[in-house]
Amino acid sequence: MSEVPSPRLRISDHDRESALTALGEHMSVGRIDIDEFGERSARVTTAKTRGELSEIFADLPEPHPRYDTPGTAVGEPEKPASPLAGISPLQRVMGALLPILFIATIAVIITTGITWWFILVPIGISAVGEGIWGKGWENSHKKLGKQRRRELDG
């Protein structure tokens, strides 16, 4: 027989989020109005124990908040995978330099009058890079460009 956790047991942020989600569901089906949702939400954010949360939901049917299990170890939050995971530093450098090399090659062709075959230099570097690093090379400069745009936008 499992023991029922004490209403004095402290709650986590996850428990509060679960309570807010449940309140949102009650509002969406019309059990509570927007003003009551605001009042109850404020009480949820200041609640410290399971008993305080239970009082907020005493007059409401399911759904109620889902609580963390007692004794659950609290660990460090999981970090999202880097968009550059799996790309070596050399691939990053080459991926960043390749677009610059194409632009420089075109500029040299236009300004010096060197024949068009000179464009084969960056194309050859791309082919060698894909041959050495496989498909990861193909998208490394695209990933680097997207990462830079995100950093500039953020």
Automatic annotation (TrEMBL):
Ranges for region Disordered: 60-80
Pfam families named in the record: DUF1707
Domain called DUF1707: residue spans: 9-61
Transmembrane region(s): 96-119
Keywords recorded for this protein, A-Z: Membrane, Transmembrane, Transmembrane helix
Entry annotated with the keyword Iron-sulfur: no
PANTHER family assigned: MEMBRANE PROTEIN, MEMBRANE PROTEIN-RELATED
Protein name per Swiss-Prot or TrEMBL: DUF1707 domain-containing protein
